[in-house]
User: What shape does this take?
Amino acid sequence: MSHLFTRCLSLLFVLSVSVWMPHAVCADDLPQQVDFNFHIRPILSDRCFHCHGPDHENRQADLRLDNPDQLNQFVDEDAGVRYVTPGKPELSELYRRISSHDEFEVMPPQDSNLSLSEREISLVKKWIEQGAEWKDHWSFISLKPVPLPEVKQTDWPRNRIDYFVLNRLEREGLSPSPAATREQWIRRVSFDLTGLPPTPEEIDAFLKDDSEKAYENVVDRLLASPHYGERMAVDWLDVARYADTYGYQSDVYRAMWPWRDWVVNAFNQNLPYDDFITWQLAGDLLPEPTRDQILATAFNRHHRQTNEGGSIEEEFRTEYVADRTQTFGTAFLGLTLECSKCHDHKFDPVTQKEFYQLSSYFNSID
Assistant: This one.
């Protein structure tokens, strides 16, 4: 009888461990410092926010995991359990649920077809252990000085960025590649800054330059090239959805190239970024605006436009306003606003009401 009792206790212990079993991941596989925005928010956004995020229509159990105030609330005050208890994963309902092996307890639920890997569960656990520091969306955080990471090969870095590159290489067990040859270097920098390969004459001149400023001289020459502005403008033209046609029906021509040339010249003249933004959004509202300041506002005119007979003018005017609002969000806020056009954003802290409050700026344009 005693032997049977012992076996029953052993079986109960095994079953209990199978339901509540810490997920073990090698510590070397986890970052030394878990960052909420870099490591945790992507997990919550992808796996949790649909049911426990900003969208009140789909929210379950009236729980918002995107709200730090609610994360601090008690689930069981007598037991000291909160949704997230800084420093104590064992008293954190979030960790208990995502690490559970009970099909009726585990989150996300099985019928969602979503799950967390053991590494992701360990990341959440370590984040809680380290104090569960919450951070706002990265685009709302002011830039601050970042300390240089420690590196073993201290003679390799030549600038601050090199420290971050080398630190990651060393963490991955890798070593830097050998220095590029001069021919390789001038080819790379020429493509990076102008989008064009160096000429044979430019390569020969660089190879013959034995001065300490040989590399600096090449960069200065490329920055002074008119092709520099063309290369830099390419990415901005994409952000601004630049096109020389209307985009609907027969897609007829429209002359937007003067704005394209303005962007190229703005880069070549090193126009300050605050002016670059202000002129494109509201250059015509500046006191006594210049021709270039007015021309810059064509940034707002690159959306598709219809000239189809029978199209409803007010319908498409509203579409244009929405397009300008969405483009503004992408280009200047680092936020996708498209979702909030139709409902509260499920993954970013933007409500539908806020979308139309913002769009009112563009709605008043003639």
About this structure: The radius of gyration is 28 Å.
